[in-house]
Inverse folding.
């Protein structure tokens, strides 16, 4: 079997276009959804991501703002910015780019964000809402993007055995919350695995839908995948590769080639789940804007 490739680009573009149309509808009324991104320090990967977010906002007709703080900014400085954005009527959603420098307590900062403006969906209020199936929850962009990929690729989650490898608060756990909810893109029977799980290969082989988010290059091999399963690779890892000009290449948590021989569908890395994240962030900003009265 050669798997269908679940290309994130057209799916993300479709979502971005839908958001742009809805945002445009408010323009006539003189209102515009706004997203702000706060970045502390000079982490190059974060800089690239933040730039891409700004561009995506412009293309969707949204107001965007980037707040840059130096590496040595204090937690109090950052909390002041959070407070300002919490009260800024032009901003409907914002996020503080992680990772933060070690001297800043990320949890305290994330908890200070107004849950109604929590574009990343990491605030405990949104985590709780997602867990009880409250439709006003702002959902973490990456697992929300995975769910949209499944729905828009006509992959049935209802009744499916979904195995999630990884239990982080930003991917694994919210992925489980999404797939277990009743309704479209949900109704799955969910198993969540982690580094202490016993006989991981056997659990993975029980999956109709296997979502992998562990941060280990090409960890999931073909023998861990049931023939015909759908494989979603969230991982983004750099591996040394002297044949590349940059000296590295990006791979997922799944050994793509051999797994594509047994799976019925698979997401590539790059070009799969990673493409969905910004689209879902725009979607969250629009949702926050509409929930605030539009
Ligand atoms: P974390 O490091 O926070 O969590 C990793 C999880 O994987 C942990 O729960 C850990 O278990 C589990 N794990 C690690 N090794 C094993 C193993 N050998 N067997 C079973 N479970 C294991 O990672 P994130 O969730 O933040 O990210 C995961 C991957 O997804 C990374 O590659 C990251 O770059 C990528 N990512 C991609 C995004 C995108 O936009 N596409 C967005 C966010 C992340 P334990 O809890 O027991 O330690």
């Amino acid at each position: 079997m050669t798997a269908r490739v679940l290309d994130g680009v057209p799916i993300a573009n479709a979502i971005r276009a839908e958001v742009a149309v809805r945002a445009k509808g408010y323009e006539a009324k003189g209102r515009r959804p706004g997203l702000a991104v706060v970045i502390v320090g000079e982490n190059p990967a974060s800089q690239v991501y933040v730039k891409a977010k700004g561009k995506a906002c412009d293309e969707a007709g949204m107001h965007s703002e980037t707040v840059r703080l130096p590496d040595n900014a204090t937690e109090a400085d950052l909390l002041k910015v959070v407070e300002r954005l919490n009260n800024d009527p032009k901003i409907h959603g914002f996020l503080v780019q992680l990772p933060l420098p070690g001297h800043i307590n990320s949890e305290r900062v994330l908890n200070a964000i107004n849950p109604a403006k929590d574009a990343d969906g990491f605030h405990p209020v949104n985590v709780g809402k997602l867990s009880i199936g409250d439709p006003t929850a702002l959902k973490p962009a990456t697992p929300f993007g995975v769910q949209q990929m499944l729905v828009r690729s006509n992959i049935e989650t209802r009744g499916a055995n979904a195995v999630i490898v990884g239990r982080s608060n930003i991917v694994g756990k919210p992925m489980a919350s999404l797939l277990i909810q009743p309704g479209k893109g949900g109704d799955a029977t969910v198993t969540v695995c982690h580094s202490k799980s016993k006989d991981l290969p056997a659990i993975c082989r029980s999956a109709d839908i296997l979502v992998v988010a562990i941060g280990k290059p090409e960890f999931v091999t073909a023998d861990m995948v049931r023939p015909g399963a759908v494989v979603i690779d969230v991982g983004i890892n750099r591996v040394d590769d002297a044949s590349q000009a940059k000296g590295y290449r990006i791979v997922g948590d799944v050994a793509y080639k051999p797994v594509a021989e047994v799976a019925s569908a698979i997401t590539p890395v790059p070009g799969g789940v990673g493409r969905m994240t910004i689209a879902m962030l725009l979607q969250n900003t629009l949702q926050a804007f509409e929930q605030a009265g539009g």
Observations:
- The CA atoms of residues 99 and 106 lie 8 Å apart.
- The longest strand covers residues 34-40.
- The domain at 141-274 is CATH 3.40.50.720 (Rossmann fold).
